[in-house]
Amino acid sequence: MAASPLARREARRFHLFALPWSIGFVFFTGGPIVVSLVLSFTRYELLESPRWVGLDNYAQLLRDPDFWMATRNTVYFGAASAAAGVVYSLAAALLLNIKVRGQAIFRTIIYMPSVISGIATALLWIHVLHPDYGLVNYLIGLVGVQGPGWLTDASWAIPGLVIMTTWTTGNAMIIFLAGLQGVPASLYEAAHIDGAGWWSRFRHVTVPMMSPVIFFNLVVGFIGSLQAYQLILFMTDGGPANSTLVLGLYVYRYAFKYFEMGYASTIAWALFFLVIVFTVIQFGLARRWVHYEVK
Amino acid sequence: MDNPLRGLNTAGLNRRQLLSLAAMAAAAVPLTACGSGERTRQAGPASSASGDSAVINPDRPESALFPYAEAEKLFDSLPWPKTDVPEPTSKVTVTVAIIPGQRHEVRHAQFAKFIKKRHPNIEIKVEVTPFDDFRTKYLTGAASGVLPDIMYSQFQWGQSFIKNNLYLPLDDYIAATPEFNRADFSKAALSYWERDGKLYALGTDSAPKLLFYNKEIFEKAGAKVPDASWTWDKLMEAARGLVSGTGAQKVFGFTPVPKPTSDLTATFLLAHGGRYLTADETRCVIQEPASRDILKRWIDLLIKDKAMPDLAETQATAKVEPFTLGRGALYVGGAWNIVTLLTLPAEQQFEWSLTHVPSGPEGRFTPVLGSAFGITSRTRNPEAAWIVLNSLRSYAGHRFFLDTPPSRLSAFEENLQDLKLDKEVIDTTKDSLHKYGTSDGVLRLPATPKLEDLTKPIWERVMSGSLSVDEGLKQVAERVTPMLAENV
């Protein structure tokens, strides 16, 4: 059936309004994605023309011990920081959801780390985590425990980075806060009448009702953490002993330090593959614990 | 030396002072670039950001350090060079890409303004890019066919720029400039920008490394300060005895820790008959006895004697040399650090001096490092670019820019005298450059950044004591040698 003049006009307008985004997508997102895929099959040292090498870069990747170390570190850092971020931001959102005087100030304070520049954050945390005179080890020392060498001990460097990134999860906290405010008060009232305490209400009302939001933050946080590199570059540059070398940083090194764009593209596609795998796994697991009110 | 700007002793910094100083210094990092290897980002031959933070007015560029009227007077008094290369007949713009540093930015702005008196058709546009981003920005630009007319280069980048045809050879322009005296540059200064008998860039500075020492720490310990008779053995022994304090108050006996970076050979190995790579950079020889034995001793000094900053301490002060904080008794650093030390804020000043680097069984060596400017292959005005470059890097240019120490030997003494340094300091710097300064063994080929990244985690395991020196050096050699093929 032929479309009506009105439908055709609306379609034209739709395409016209979508055009800026479409052009942007083609030139700044879709195009580079395709180009990087092509480059991943080439040897391209920026100042010379790319040379087709077939699957050589992928074969090299499989033999590259630093790539495997970076993959392990990426998964470790991604999982740990996504999980810690969700726990911290949910806890912060629960506190900030309580109606108390001056709550707006507390919300601003908790959110503030998210708007501080990355380099300032990194500079601050290098000192906060310093093993000898950092604030974290000082606080641990107050209870008689000798703190580890955060960022300087290969075993503790990623936990140190996780602590730092957790501090900046204000955006997730805002989403949790919005989610909490959408939980019907009637459910809490019913639970209260049934004699449920704080923990029971949290476990049997808040968590199920918030599970789609938790899932969203977990997926988004995990993807973001898998791609992280900027703060790590500044704070540890992959050290000590490559213990914080993550795939994002490895891509950066090959692309903008060694100018081997072909191999950098190959690593980037490996990272993309990793993101897809873990996202699919999370969606698979979500069926078991995410509760949607309307199906 | 007795520093005229001497202030408080920073060896007693409290935590708050140290943190704020470290943060300030780290923020200043992009402004002070160059040098070598690990420490390249903190301060460099061609830059010094400290002490002068003016906003540059393009119509009347000046700062407290470089007042406009004085700058103009100095410019007019200098013997600017001539060339047979013809002047442009119409207006042309020559873009000069530099790294930041208020001192240099002000001077470049003044130079751009004053040069028009001599070359009315030449307009200079200065592009400032942070050191850490410089190479990425301009290599990416080169890939898309865009480059400035004149471009800065650090010693490690020169051969890569030349190999990739980013610089024009200067020989024809030099031939058209009869008064150009090539011998006015030291061999080491030129070596980073020569390839196949052609010269591609002219140096800004050419700095040897020297042994700096904190007089206050020596005085407090009742120890004799170093002099030209010192050997590396003597230095190690002294470093052990000068360690004191803990945490933020710790004073190190010596910095920096030797690492497999670009000037390891010239600074630490040659004096003991060792090398990191063979002279042609085709094979790693760091695991051989001469290098291994001396590196073992350094690691002992680090791990057993705790006389040098460990990994945690290195990271906490990654962007700031502990010596600059008053927390190092002995420090081998570039002559460019003289300016850094002289321009420390008053409350951070301390008494320091310098002498020759120690000698070893095979003699005395110091790396000579520096930066340069070359004309890019994409320039549309090569002749105007040569007129500008020839002026920038002439005796007059070196005097005007106060390069420390300058690549032009004719400007050497005067530039150092301008800093009001003791004669002994000037003589030591001069002797270091002329008598035993070398570029031999300084890594400069394209694979250097990758090589440094590959060896860093191995060496960090050695520094932390989790890997023996023998095993560490074996792993370094195994990983480095195959990569050297990328230099071809």
Record field, number of beta strands of chain A? 2
- Helix proportion of chain B: 25-40%
Strand order of the largest sheet of chain A: 1-2
Say how many strands of chain B there are: 11
Describe the structure.
The complex is a heterodimer of chains A (295) and B (488). Chain A is an all-alpha fold. Chain A has a two-stranded antiparallel ribbon. The two termini of chain A are 33 Å apart. The mean pLDDT of chain A is 91. Chain A has 13 helices and two strands, in the order H-E-E-H-H-H-H-H-H-H-H-H-H-H-H. In chain A, a hairpin with a 7-residue loop joins strand 1 and strand 2. Chain B is an alpha/beta fold and 488 residues long. Helix content of chain B is 39%, strand content 13%. In chain B, the strands form two sheets. In chain B, strands 1, 2, 3, 6, 7, 8, 9, 10 and 11 form a nine-stranded mixed β-sheet that branches. In chain B, strand 1, helix 3 and strand 2 form a beta-alpha-beta unit. Chain B is globular, with a radius of gyration of 22 Å. The N terminus of chain B is likely disordered.
Question: Which characteristics define this entry?
Answer:
heterodimer, A: 295 residues, mainly alpha, two-stranded antiparallel sheet, 2 strands, B: 488 residues, alpha/beta, 9-stranded mixed beta sheet, 11 strands, 39% helix, globular
Topology:
The complex is a heterodimer of chains A (295) and B (488).
Chain A lengths: L4 H35 L2 E2 L7 E2 L3 H8 L1 H32 L6 H9 L6 H11 L6 H8 L14 H11 L2 H12 L3 H9 L4 H29 L3 H6 L11 H11 L3 H29 L6
Antiparallel strand pairs in A: 1-2
Chain B lengths: L14 H13 L40 H10 L14 E7 L3 H17 L3 E7 L2 H13 L6 E5 L3 H6 L7 H5 L11 H5 L2 E2 L2 E2 L2 E13 H7 L10 H10 L10 E4 L8 H6 L19 H15 L7 H6 L11 E7 L2 H6 L9 E4 L10 E10 L6 H11 L2 H7 L10 H7 L4 H14 E2 L9 H17 L4 H15 L5
Parallel strand pairs in B: 1-2, 1-3, 7-8, 10-11
Antiparallel strand pairs in B: 3-10, 4-5, 6-8, 6-9, 6-10
